[in-house]
Design a protein that fits this description.
mainly alpha; Myeloperoxidase, subunit C; two-stranded parallel sheet; 18 helices; 6% strand; globular
Amino acid sequence: MKSHGGTPLPVSPDGTCRFKHAKDSGSGAFRHFLRPPNGSEIHRLHGTLPRDDFRRADDLLTRLSHHFLFSDRIWDAYQGEAAEAWENPDIPAGYTYLLQLVAHDLVQASVIFPRMDRRIGELRNHRTFSLDLDTLYGSGPAACPHAYSASTKFGFRSRLKLSRMRQSNKLVPAAKPAFRDIGRGYAHEDNSFPRNGPTEALLADPRNDDNANISQLLTVFIWLHNTVIESLEAQGAVPPEYSQEVAEEYRFGQARRIVTETYRRIVRHDLLPRILHPDVLRHYETDKSPYLETDADERMPMEFSHAAFRFGHAMIRPSYRLNTGHPGFSIGDILRTNSLREPYSMPLNEKWIVEWSRFFELDDPSLVNLSRRIGPSLSSGLEVPDGFGFPLRGTTETLAHRDLLRGASADLWSVTALIAEIGKRQPDLIAMSPLLSDITGLRARLQAWLATNWSRSGQALSELQIDTIAEDPPLFFFILFEAMAEAHGRHLGVLGSTIVAEVLLRRLDSIAPETGTASYPATGFETVRTMPALLRTLAERSGLSTASPSFL
């Protein structure tokens, strides 16, 4: 949620690099959702493009972001539905980090933070936008050898790298199996061979060491890949004329396809039904209604990457219980636990090894950390005073502030203009939502919420600022407000769901059908469609069912 550097090359599912000419529509440029908005359809603050009056826009968005941190009382009406009023009984916390993995798989901008004067055509997306686990595999073993472990004398690296769990003290038993953390290596500043000292993550996408929760989730997919490789080796399903080295590469391509299709099924059948408005999901999946976007443009819409899909930040809990042996950690501790912030404390020790029954519905529901409800309210602990929020003025900033600035930098659609454009193309989508169907009432509800939910002293919004936001709300803020107003924070509202469905479902529909695994040897993962099913199947087939520390 903070480290967004590095620019791995695009790669196809068979492990080969994919290069495209700059004029190709899929070459990495961003675009707008539906079509480029006209001048009057672009989001404005005080009637001005935010980048044209940065200081005034930043002041307004800073004040708005502070509302996010002091508005937990919006969930008071739901006390009793879950352990805490702000907890979402429908979405276990593991899906928060699965969303982060999907986000990393879809988007990696060419700069850490787009300046307010950055034009859309200048930004590049270094992801393939194919839901092919580019964030896990990178450009393959040849271009990203540091992420792979050499498994034979023939040199082709078919397995992904893991690290041995570190013991917090000599009295703690060693892990069985030993490899329970992402790949890490010792960093060094000279030409000597490092044998100890600070560590660095050995990943195709270093953002997956952003925090302890995402790095532990990544180990699940690393174990999945390596387990599939072992299954393919045991079956020996390789053309007899292949040399040993070519056979390794052949199996790697098969394994990547099997793992990628498993991941896509989970996104489609487990993740999206949890986060999308059920009426919008039915519109696309059951009714098979046509998509709003019908062309083959594969570029990433900014309204998705810089606004709608950032809703997962509102799902972050203030603390997590990771396993039976430790009482838990604050989100600040979890964000800090990586090779960038704590390079001398890696690999992870037993306190950080996740029992997945704490993050997904496996056996005992009482064990599960629930995600936060989706709304304009972020966890305490995301103020991040030590720099996680990328402060622009040397002062404490927030994750909400950064998200609002990202959207303000991109000349996104205004909310009302976007609603109108969707209504022209498919009025039945807008008709699903009383909120979207009544723009006057929508603005009144925004005004009332902003006036009621005051932030800390000195950062309250003025009446003029409240009117400005209600008249033309930032898309990211509105997506969260809509989820609160329409769905009690249990899933996205109609507008947020429409943007996410148009990007992800349309992309999944354009990719090879799920039956593609039929041409590969059976590995036991062919019917997996949910994260709980993946975890149980993986535990059974990899030996992790008896792991210590516990896997499930």
